[in-house]
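Cross-posted from the bioinformatics board.
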Amino acid sequence: MSSVFGKLFTLSSWGESHGKAIGAVVDGCPAGLEISEEYIQQFLDRRKPGQSAITTQRKESDLVKILSGVFEGKTTGTPISMIVENADQHSADYEQIKDWWRPGHADEAYDSKYGFRDYRGGGRSSARETIARVAGGSIARKFLKEKCGTEFTATINIDNNSIENAKKNGDSIGGIVSLTIKNPPKNLGEPVFDRTEALLAMAMLSIPATRGFEIGKGFEAANMLGSEHNKFADGTYGGITSGEDILCRIAFKPTPSISKTQMAKNKNGAFGEISIKGRHDPCVAVRAPVIVESMAALVLMDLWLQL
Amino acid sequence: MSSVFGKLFTLSSWGESHGKAIGAVVDGCPAGLEISEEYIQQFLDRRKPGQSAITTQRKESDLVKILSGVFEGKTTGTPISMIVENADQHSADYEQIKDWWRPGHADEAYDSKYGFRDYRGGGRSSARETIARVAGGSIARKFLKEKCGTEFTATINIDNNSIENAKKNGDSIGGIVSLTIKNPPKNLGEPVFDRTEALLAMAMLSIPATRGFEIGKGFEAANMLGSEHNKFADGTYGGITSGEDILCRIAFKPTPSISKTQMAKNKNGAFGEISIKGRHDPCVAVRAPVIVESMAALVLMDLWLQL
Amino acid sequence: MSSVFGKLFTLSSWGESHGKAIGAVVDGCPAGLEISEEYIQQFLDRRKPGQSAITTQRKESDLVKILSGVFEGKTTGTPISMIVENADQHSADYEQIKDWWRPGHADEAYDSKYGFRDYRGGGRSSARETIARVAGGSIARKFLKEKCGTEFTATINIDNNSIENAKKNGDSIGGIVSLTIKNPPKNLGEPVFDRTEALLAMAMLSIPATRGFEIGKGFEAANMLGSEHNKFADGTYGGITSGEDILCRIAFKPTPSISKTQMAKNKNGAFGEISIKGRHDPCVAVRAPVIVESMAALVLMDLWLQL
Amino acid sequence: MSSVFGKLFTLSSWGESHGKAIGAVVDGCPAGLEISEEYIQQFLDRRKPGQSAITTQRKESDLVKILSGVFEGKTTGTPISMIVENADQHSADYEQIKDWWRPGHADEAYDSKYGFRDYRGGGRSSARETIARVAGGSIARKFLKEKCGTEFTATINIDNNSIENAKKNGDSIGGIVSLTIKNPPKNLGEPVFDRTEALLAMAMLSIPATRGFEIGKGFEAANMLGSEHNKFADGTYGGITSGEDILCRIAFKPTPSISKTQMAKNKNGAFGEISIKGRHDPCVAVRAPVIVESMAALVLMDLWLQL
């Protein structure tokens, strides 16, 4: 059950990057929350490519439609089904490399695990799947903002130059996203397995291309003395939120899709040089902040319902 | 449901640091695996304090008893109940600070969340709860070793001097644990939410005192080019294991229990100086490697059953 | 999380009877299964109203579209999203009773639980929601048929006369559906909580209007001697399937929507007479067999994946 | 995961009928509930055999010990571990039939599913496992009684004569248990899969030897007209509790363990006559009421936490 997230506030994500549509079903949202397509759209627009020189130039209209769960502008407590049709598809770009396993990609893993693969794009581990997360997260964050005043703000810490350099060379580069959760609800999380930091870590590492997660002082804490660290407002204690702001950092690896020529293996075990066409982000982290915020909102919302 | 871990191979953990016993119930273990108390004991012994100058001097006998699930030396497919009685308890050490919220501890969070707290020790967020994880993990790793040749090895990267210095000053220090999973089963994990790295991250951040998690190149990947990173054997692709070794690093903060005098708040909102008595680890990371290995084994075992 | 069914083979159901569409997302289906819209459609057609004098005359085209998870005619192991647009809606029929709580209906319960209600039709507890179950079940049964030769056949045990009589009087009547599962896979189910019969009972009692469930000899077994009953092929022993055929019976109450005048309460506590217009089934059990078969297939498929 | 029940209020059940002990871990119980071993014991005593001529004469002391989760007489919000040691074991009774599959028992199913079996007693599908359910249920019902005034009362509907006749003939007989839930909390349950009746049905059919479940008018409803049935206080509407009393009936088959000579198969496929020694209940339903009450309490408690 890879595609359902959460215990009481659940997000079911579906859709392939090159299929007919991408969608999300949110279940467990309390009744009475005002939700509109326009409201959700603003978050989808933030993750949309083609917005600057340093993101992919694919034009994705990505217009969300609400199919259920909202009546007269308000949630009814029933599942909220949202759909975004796939429009601008360059499947042809993939046709020529369909037998090749792109380096750093899940192609080989998919063929091994499922014995069968939609070679057009990254399938379910594609960045496009994150549309579902952003749509679902937009509902969670609205509820938390209205109910508890919680705000999620993520930013990327990388200079544009290094991204443009990578792009110029047909290469890609990684990045780090910093997340601040202001006014999180108090008393979320449980002291053993469902620690707030554990669930946040899981949520973040489930975003494609992530390789690291820190909360509070993170790896820096490893070199600190207890007498120092105890003075720091850590946000969670024994896994439970204190109501203090929560700080996280998430590491993204460079996107493996690069036009620069690389050695690759194919299904038959042969090796050869490939160049991945198509319009890919030189730095996936650039579009990630809204995804990071969304996943954090899903985690906190689910914990809030368990209070 | 904070105290049950896993989907098909589940670990139920119970027991307080200063209660009668600590226990674990493992459900979903395939029948026919040879398991003995002696076998499990060796892993518990590795996490036991009092083994060197740089760990706490509490003497914990920590003898495990198997109460169910094993018949004629082999698992029967039924729940395996294991119990470790608590022996050497210095509850008196806690009596004097029972109204105080120890800095960096979950005391205040517990009082806020549950309105009621067993003031003796850290309750469920205590390091002692990890006995259950090690007992449960010992079964998972045995299965994976015999079935797939998988081995889990974690080490701590810190010099003893800095720990002894901290100890001398009544202080504590953090640390980083490195984990290598050799020969992990192939095809574990799912491409969306149940990515192998996401479940490992959750497992690790559920260990008390953890603040960060990395897999593969981790935060370093943020500064790498795609053309470089693609050459690296990453262990998981699109969340799915490739059978290559998996490398993780986990950051531990310094234990908040220090004898050095600190300012603290109490239940009534008053401030005062406290010194935490009792025999506490100057560096919790020292005893953490076997816990880290155990959690990793639980994650992979659960995913293996979902293959 | 009321709208997600199953552990490894999950069905997420969404959509209101009078919203834009009804949909289902199936996750966890193995890759490589041939699935087409035509195949699924034949099961949806079996539950469709308007097929005989004894079912409602609503014309539901109920054409299913597959939006994801199938590539070149075969499942890819990714979530299968299916959608059925709502067409023939007589919301006006509901407008006049929107403030009334229909006797035997969930109207009052909804208002009490959610404080807010889509008064058009039965919302999520409507029979129309079962489209999602039939669509999802059609995939499960295809897999089980091809893999294990399993077949699900349900029939209704009621004479048409009594239904027509009820209809003539603006009334409704209950019914019993009998289910035979031929060649179920062996070894499904677990001996404690996840007994096959427990999961079947839950699945059946989650169908709207159900009030009873029997397996094997059912209530008759209460009057049998052990020496007799032991000779009977019971299908499950200790909760585990033996591979013998499984027999179940499910009791449906009469649909509460009747045009016959009834006393009803409204939101303000007032009482009055109402007559429920619209085209309702005089006996919901008539269309239920394919729903019963579908739920049984979902249960067995989920257990099969846990083998 | 057959041995964990519930979503937020979870019961982990462990232990074999002829192992060292039987135990239960309850997780998710709110803090502050007064619980003592004496309180729990009274419910265990009700399911204890040897209390009358019509139950088995095994003497089970069945004394429960609380090992965690209760501090100064009150729950702390942490897992409550309870244990009952197994005392009076007549494993020798089983030695002679260890290679035989007892008719109507799970012996063959266990050998087929797990390839390995503890031949002493019924293993996990034994009636003795229900100790865990009664212990866990006793906590749930106390909470619901104090918080909502809810009371669970089950009775068996069978005359003692037929049981004594069966006993005299070395035979057994089935029975029906009727359950009344007085003052259930309002608004429990969800309209689709987690309907209150669905969860109750699952809970009841997970009790060993059950074959049928009814709620409200049950199978009788199948022959009723809507105009009649709508007048009946049904307890749940659209799966949601109304606060009205809930009535259920549960069918138990005759216990398959009888001393009367029966034909049986053994592991090698041979047939022969066996007589099952040991002290078995002539009617398992006699001791079932407290088990039925306990399972109902677990279901309602879990739903209550999801409100």
